[in-house]
Specification:
300 residues, 14 helices
Length: 300
């Protein structure tokens, strides 16, 4: 009988390990389609672009291996540095979207009659496509009949001025990006612990002190997400530039994503375009890895 009792834990352990293996197998089978799709649509294009950047190819004739020639030409191109500078301008001004979104979220986070309609009006720009936003602001900036002319009193050729065009397009891009950050903060505000806020008020905290020491620490996940998505949006900006300026005048408003498209579609330089894509991917990868490490450090 003692031998039988000794065998019971062993049998139970075997059944537990078998059940664990079955769960792991089921989880793997459920994840397999998504992983395969991710590998096909994300991982494979990344490695294929890196490999293509070492070739000279027009998309039709056989590829010619050129080594680092595409990268050497890229780093000696004046347009590349103009695009890089414009990406930096996009990044700096696009970072206004999270604080503006927070201000709108705090304003709209009220229990007032009709506030849902107001929220819908604030969120409306985000659901518009980039093409629509680009067309609306192209009409707004038009120096002959645009709304800007009526406001200022005289026509300003924003999209025709090499010094103003990038700032005009960034301002247009902030219009839908700010409501997106606003929605992220509104979602975060719904998860704030009201007991903590009430306790802080009883201790005398109010106004900016309440916001800075009580509310913002609880909105840290929303802030992290808003900043990361805003930076990625600034680095991959394309649609508004294509609609509003086409990279002009004289490539003054081009960015890396549009420069990549321009070389591939207009000039059939697929290898050179791939080298631009690799550089842009490397810039985004550095930023994403930095923020992921910071997030993991905070989680620990």
């Amino acid at each position: 009988m003692s031998t039988t009792l000794a065998r019971l834990p062993v049998a139970r352990g075997r059944r537990t390990s078998a059940a664990g293996r079955a769960r792991n197998r089921a989880a793997f089978l459920f994840l397999l389609p998504g992983c395969a799709l991710f590998a096909l649509c994300v991982i494979y294009p990344i490695f294929n672009s890196i490999a293509l950047s070492f070739y000279n190819w027009d998309g039709m004739t056989p590829k010619t291996f050129v080594g680092l020639a595409n990268y050497i030409e890229l780093f000696h191109s004046g347009t590349f540095y103009v695009a890089l500078k414009n990406n930096l301008i996009w990044l700096v001004f696009f970072l206004l979207a999270p604080p503006l979104g927070l201000l709108f979220a705090l304003y709209l986070n009220q229990q007032v009659k009709g506030i849902r309609i107001v929220k819908s009006l604030f969120f409306a720009p985000f659901v518009l496509s980039g093409v629509v936003v680009g067309l609306v602001f192209s009409w707004f900036y038009d120096p002959t009949f645009g709304l800007l002319k009526l406001i200022v009193g005289h026509g300003i050729p924003v999209l025709g001025d090499a010094h103003l065009v990038t700032y005009g397009i960034v301002f247009a891009a902030l219009w839908p990006q700010t409501p997106y950050c606003m929605v992220l903060y509104l979602t975060g505000l719904t998860s704030i612990n009201p007991e903590v806020v009430e306790a802080a008020r009883m201790e005398g905290a109010k106004g900016f002190k309440l916001l800075w020491h009580v509310i913002l620490p609880q909105l840290r996940p929303a802030t992290f997400l808003a900043i990361v998505l805003t930076v990625i949006g600034a680095l991959r900006s394309f649609d508004l530039i294509a609609v509003m300026s086409g990279g002009g005048p004289f490539d003054s408003s081009t960015v890396l994503a549009y420069y990549m498209y321009d070389q591939a579609i207009k000039y059939y330089r697929e290898g050179y375009s791939a080298s631009i894509a690799v550089v842009l991917f490397a810039i985004m990868l550095v930023y994403i890895v930095f923020h992921l490490r910071r997030m993991l450090r905070e989680e620990r």
